[in-house]
Amino acid sequence: MIDIKLLLNDLFNVSASDIEKAAAYQKRYDGRLENILVNMGCLTEDDLPPLYHNLLGYPLFETESFPNWKPDDSIKFSEHEILKSHHCLLLSATDTEWSIACKDPLDPSLSQFLSKKSVEIKVYIASDAQLQSFFYEIQSQTEANFNDDELTGTEEARLRELASEAPIVNLLNALITKALARGASDMHLEPHGGRFRVRYRIDGVLHQVDSLAAKMQLPLTTRLKILSGMDIAEKRRPQDGKIEMRIANQDLDIRVSALPLNAGESIVLRFLRKDSIKYDMSVLGLSNDTQALINQDLKKTTGVILLTGPTGSGKTTTLYTFLNELNTDNVKIITLEDPVEYQLDGVSQVQINADIGFDFAAGLRSIVRQDPDIIMVGEIRDKETAQIALQSALTGHLVFSTVHTNDAASAYTRLLDLGVEEFLLNAALVSVVAQRLARRLCGHCAKPAENAEELIAKYPLKEIASMAGLDALNIMQAQGCEHCNNTGFKGRIAINEYLRCDDGIKVIPKDDQFIAKAKAYNHSQNRRDLLEDGFYKVVTGVTTIDEVLRVAG
């Protein structure tokens, strides 16, 4: 058998010192080395299947290979239950062979039970999340029929009971734990192809991680609705809810959204980890020249600084980082948000409540009377909010906000479309920063790009390097390793376009030619647009051409 200590180091980069600590604990208290390392936090539950696969040579279990699985009627229900107690699933059975999927192939009591069977055993290695959906099939041989339009009191009680049973609770917990271990920002549960698909959004990209039986949809959806305070009987309109929980000593808020579809409901969970976000300028990945310009703007005491970009481009995180830089005992900072996602120490954060008429405009009118030095408005959506924000800047406040536009110059036209006067824009705006997020290359496995010369010939990489004063081009490509879940990327980095609203911009007429003229002026000031800043991140070895074109092309 392969030495498990060598595997732990090679596959998961577990340090020799941690292995020795685990071995010392094992010698004193008994137990399995890999389980001790899981308890120490050196491994996760998701690491165990590939570990056993490499250690024992058993194949990994693929749920897609058993799309229509049902418990074998020729096997006693009690034997299914015995196997289940060992986290083991009987996939198929004949007179001569059983195929099983198990979480722990080294479980001695499982081996003892199987040794009494006069059949050949074919073993697959499975994760707990994979097994739980199949266990539900065993427990629920008959499924209640629920009215698609309206639940009776009896049906609702039965649905609550189904959603509270151990297989559903364990499955949901396993899916959330796996999502957090992989660094997912969102989890999507949706009907697809006659099954219930599970996908994680990791570094902005969706990855399918499981495909559950279709009958799992209703109890899982109901479980999430119960936890998040939604109406489980309502399946015809969208609903939103919130779950607060603590996992691995970490406070976690989960925003839950339910959307009715033709085939059921799509459920999306957004994970807000309060302790995992670092509001540090160095973490944003701003280019040195862009950061220097922004630092100059942050020293101002009046004016408006805008962040632009689509949903999910990191605007709020960037604004929080700016506020964190300015957050001292000498200034009062008030934010107006919808919703308040993360709590900033020392900052007064206000939650919008449109249901009672407390929108951005009403909130902004109120907070200017609180004598703030710095104001953050989550988003400028209408003329009234825009005018109050800009006028607040003219009366001695530094204001931060966001608008949804494709680039920096378009922020002007967006505000003009809302009805803001041109003179007010020229007087109040300090700068506009457009932003996208690209995946950052994994620092453990990235390697020099094999097609670097081809990329240099196709894209203006040399020009970008020369423009930034770089002597060499460091073009890398993704490879994939255990540190990045074999994606080649780990984390994300900001790609920005910076537009300073100086005299050169103010004198340009704000007509249908403004965007083109503003871009030309900005380029004459040796400032990059979004695509060029992405190329800058390519030649400095931070990301790839494909990533830049995906988010900014």
Explain what the structure shows:
The relative contact order is 0.07. Mean pLDDT is 86; it is low at 141-145. Helix content is 39%, strand content 23%. Strands 12-11-13-14-10-15-18 form a seven-stranded mixed sheet, sandwiched between helices. Strands 6-5-4-9-8-7 form a six-stranded antiparallel sheet, with helices on one face. It has 23 helices and 18 strands. It folds into three domains: 4-138, Type II secretion system, protein E, N-terminal domain (GMP Synthetase, Chain A, domain 3, 2-Layer Sandwich), CATH 3.30.300; 144-273, Beta-Lactamase (2-Layer Sandwich); 281-437 and 495-528, Rossmann fold (3-Layer(aba) Sandwich), CATH 3.40.50. Strand 4 (186-192) and strand 5 form a beta hairpin. It has 553 residues and is an alpha/beta fold.
- Give the % helix: 25-40%
Looking at the structure, the CATH topology of the largest domain is Rossmann fold
CATH class designation of the largest domain: Alpha Beta
Kindly, what is the distance between the CA atoms of the first and last residues, rounded to a whole number of angstroms? 50 Å
Report the total helices. Answer: 23
User: What's the CATH superfamily of the largest domain, by name?
Assistant: P-loop containing nucleotide triphosphate hydrolases
By secondary-structure content and strand pairing, the structural class works out as alpha/beta
Molecular shape: globular
Q: How much is the radius of gyration in Å? A: 28 Å
Quote the average pLDDT: 86
- Total DSSP E strands: 18
